[in-house]
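pipeline stage [seq->struct] | target=Benzene 1,2-dioxygenase subunit alpha | organism=Urbifossiella limnaea | residues=375
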Amino acid sequence: MFIHQHHLRHLLRPEHYTAAEQYRAELRHLFLPAWHPVAVVDQLAKPGDFVSLDLLETPILIRNFDGQLRAFLNVCPHRHSRLTDEPCGNTERLRCRYHGWEFREDGRTGKIPDAPAFRPWDRENSCLRPFAVGTCGDLVFVRLSDTGVSLDDWLAPVRGHWESYGGAYRHAATWEKEFPCNWKVVLENSLESYHIPEVHPKTFKEYPPAENAWHELAERFSSFKTVPPLDFASRAMNWMVRRLGVPVTNEYWHRVLHPHATGSSLDIFRMMQCVFPTGPTTCRYRCILFTLRGTRRGPVAWVLGRFLKWIATRIAVQVFDEDGTIYRGVQRGLEASPFPGVIGTREERVHAFQRYVLDHTRGPSELPLAEKLSG
């Protein structure tokens, strides 16, 4: 079921995983125009709820202003302090922790202590810097670039699928970890099943045969589908899915929207994974997991929903940790490798991803994604 019938060139060279120049080009041309899943709606459900995080060397704050989500640079225009260092919380007003400047939902100043001391008022340079924010399902996305495609256009290849990250599926857990490797090492690992027998002998155990592995390849998107074996565990899961009022598909999907947003799904869960570069040879990997709660209510549904949350979270964290064991070794190998590399047909999604990186970060083709899409 693979698209290519022969092995492929490894398009990226070791220096693409180590050079500062490549890192900067990727930040500018791949990540700044992209939309980034950073939170879930439940974290920002009430007026005054906020989430803050560092995103691509940029401190971000997302806040609920009377039902409207707004995103700003987490820096006060007064004396450059971060507005808050808390990762989340609820405040009556958006207020700088240093001198108490307050800001409205449009980023303009509200109450300023000892305001007459700042006459004449420089209104233009006293506003917070805003960022575009939007939602898909229960996922909250932010874009750092001032210009670019809308969230709907950026999500076009996957929006219909990722809208299910919510509704019958409830937010179960969010976790992240720093890894000593280039971000592409993590992303490429997620794009192939060839490593499964070595890295996941206790969870996935074996990669699916070619006739049970479907690939789709496009410029900005690739997907993988397989049907898990109908063993005792699968039958039990299917029974629980039916009892929770959701149709059984028994399909596993893994969809990647370049450069870095990965959505995987089975009937019992939806998971968004995103890898962010933090340096040429370091990255941060974040996972947002939703598990099936279903459409039915009652004690049986409650117990089943709690069990699925527990088992799906446990397995997802285990798989995450298993993958994490190989990243350091891959990065060290890249830094010493004299080989050109080779990609097998089972790894063809890696080849498509590498082509995307090269097309958007080298020579005359080095254009922001937004310009490329609108051209």
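stage status: PASS
auto-comment: The two ends are 33 Å apart (CA to CA). The mean pLDDT is 92.
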